[in-house]
Specification:
- By secondary structure, this protein is an alpha/beta fold.
- The protein folds into 2 domains: about 160 residues, Leucine Aminopeptidase, subunit E, domain 1 (3-Layer(aba) Sandwich), CATH 3.40.220.10; about 280 residues, Zn peptidases (Aminopeptidase).
- The strands form 5 sheets. Strands 10, 11, 12, 13, 14, 17, 18, 19 and 21 form a 9-stranded mixed beta sheet that branches.
- Strand 15 and strand 16 form a beta hairpin.
- The longest helix has 22 residues.
- It is elongated, with a radius of gyration of 24 Å.
- It starts with a strand and ends with a helix.
Length: about 500
């Protein structure tokens, strides 16, 4: 953000204004006449109503606004005590092949979030937002940018409501709000401390969120059922904790054809991961409260699909438990049996996510799915490979990859395809005591790839994808429209993927 400019003869009179309502307007980088201003349609209308005052102030208040920069003006309009003008970058920005996203949409999300946060810092509690030519992206930038997990703090950020300035594309705005609220739900679940989000508490929160869509969504919270399903791999992870495991199952029936094959989304739900007997280092272990990021994004995606009333059938599956050390915990070298009858030598109890997913994947096949997508904060190796730039995708289906990739270009929440070579399969199937080894022969080499190869041993569906989201679990400053903390990625990509599948029917 840049300079703050005022239009009052007496600067002290600023304090007399009770800043309740603000406005965010966009301006493009002008490649034409030096010093001229290229406003968005909404900003131009606002400027016209002020007889050109906004344009004049932009010209005299400093250099032209660059992408993501901002300037605030006070007292130029009686309805808006403060107006934030934000830089949108070039007006001709489009899909960038090198970056694998739509630069225009990303620029809008970033700019709008900057403007909304500046107004929030001024304790403005209602903000109207310029649609900037893409109301959905503007809404996503506003709602994502304003989110902060402060539920457990005494001093909280000002709560800001947002709405579209004018009525250019109210449907696009509402869609963007729902997309962003879905990601914020995942962020809330991931950020909350593990003593607040136990498996039981997680399931209860999701149950509350889908209650308003009860005509389309059913929910099953299953305890004793897990043992009857012979989910030995899942139970082997949960037995070290005093918290009971939960198998959460969501059914969203939005298709006009109830017999239409569903999309099955499976999310890893380790609500706290200590590593078990293979204990993690204490440094940054607190972040393992978000090791249920896969379950959070999957469940938030189902809630969002229901809110959007997407004409598709989706089943969300989330095996939820803690991975803790105790006298009852699984020991390195133990052998357990998965739902499909395959035995697994557990040489490292900190490679637990693939164990609970194995049983959930087997169960997911019983629904004769159109496609199965599992999502998991699975391996540190994925963070090493891609960092926070993209989620890694391992898939046996070119069609499914194309759908996921196309969705990620739209959302800016990118994915990148990774290999599923037999080279990696041989490493997990060469086991001394059982059919499979949960870490493979070479635990440090290609860890994300061997984990994917392990999961593939529990897949028979022709369209399956595994998203390793360990690298995108949290945000420092990489995504400008997300604050520091747990990211909720890739919720919007999953929702956009489901939307795209509908349109391709």
């Amino acid at each position: 953000s840049t300079a703050v400019c005022g239009c009052f003869s007496d600067a002290s009179s600023l304090v007399l204004i009770y800043l309740l309502q603000g406005l965010v307007l966009g301006v493009f980088e002008n490649e034409g006449e030096q010093g001229s201003v290229h406003l968005t349609e909404a900003a131009a209308g606002f400027d016209k109503a002020l007889s050109g005052k906004l344009s004049e102030l932009l010209k005299i208040s400093g250099p032209a606004l660059k992408k993501g920069k901002s300037r605030i003006f006070y007292g130029i309009h009686e309805d808006f005590p403060c107006v934030a003008v934000v830089g949108l970058g070039k007006n001709n920005a489009a899909v960038c092949g090198a970056e694998n996203w739509d630069s225009s949409k990303e620029n809008i999300r970033q700019a709008v979030s900057v403007g909304c946060r500046l107004l929030q810092d001024l304790e403005v509690n209602h903000v109207e937002v310029d649609g900037c030519g893409d109301a959905q992206s503007a809404a996503e930038g506003a709602v994502l940018g304003l989110f902060e997990y402060d539920q457990l703090k005494s001093k909280k950020k000002t709560k800001v409501t947002t709405q579209l300035h004018g009525s250019a594309d109210s449907a696009g705005w509402e869609k963007g709000v729902l997309y962003a609220e879905g990601q914020n739900l995942a962020r809330l679940l991931m950020e909350a401390p593990a003593n607040h989000i136990t498996p039981t508490a997680f399931a209860s929160i999701i149950e509350e969120k889908v209650a308003r869509h009860a005509e389309h969504v059913t929910i099953h919270k299953r305890f004793d059922w897990i043992q009857n399903q012979e989910m030995g791999a899942f139970l082997s992870v949960s037995k070290g904790s005093e918290e009971p495991p939960v198998f959460l199952e969501l059914h969203y029936n939005g298709s006009p054809d109830p017999t239409r094959a569903p999309l099955v989304l499976v999310g890893k739900g380790i609500t706290f991961d200590s590593g078990g007997i293979s204990l993690k280092p204490s440094l940054s272990m607190d972040a393992m409260r978000a090791d249920m990021g896969g379950a959070a994004t999957v469940c938030a995606s189902v809630v969002t699909a229901a809110a959007l009333k997407l004409p598709v059938n989706i089943i969300g599956l989330a095996p939820l438990c803690e991975n803790m050390p105790s006298g009852k915990a699984t020991k390195p070298g133990d052998v357990v049996k998965a739902k499909n009858g395959k035995t697994i030598q557990v040489d490292n109890t900190d490679a637990e996510g693939r164990l609970i997913l194995a049983d959930a994947l087997c169960y997911g096949h019983t629904f004769n799915p159109r496609a199965i997508v599992n999502v998991a904060t699975l391996t540190g190796a994925m963070d090493v490979a891609l960092g926070s730039a993209a989620a890694g995708v391992f898939t046996n289906s070119d069609w499914l990859w194309e759908q996921l990739h196309k969705a990620s270009v739209v959302t800016g929440d990118r994915v990148w395809r990774m290999p599923l070579f037999q080279h990696y399969t041989r490493q997990v199937t060469d086991s001394q005591l059982a059919d499979l080894n949960n870490i493979g022969k070479y635990s440090r080499s290609g860890g994300a790839c061997t984990a994917a190869a392990f999961l593939r041993e529990f897949v028979t569906a022709p369209h399956w994808a595994h998203l390793d989201i360990a690298g995108v679990m949290s945000n420092k400053d990489e995504v400008p429209y997300l604050r520091k903390g747990m990211s909720g990625r890739p919720t919007r990509t999953l929702v956009e993927f489901a939307t795209g599948v509908v349109h391709n029917d």
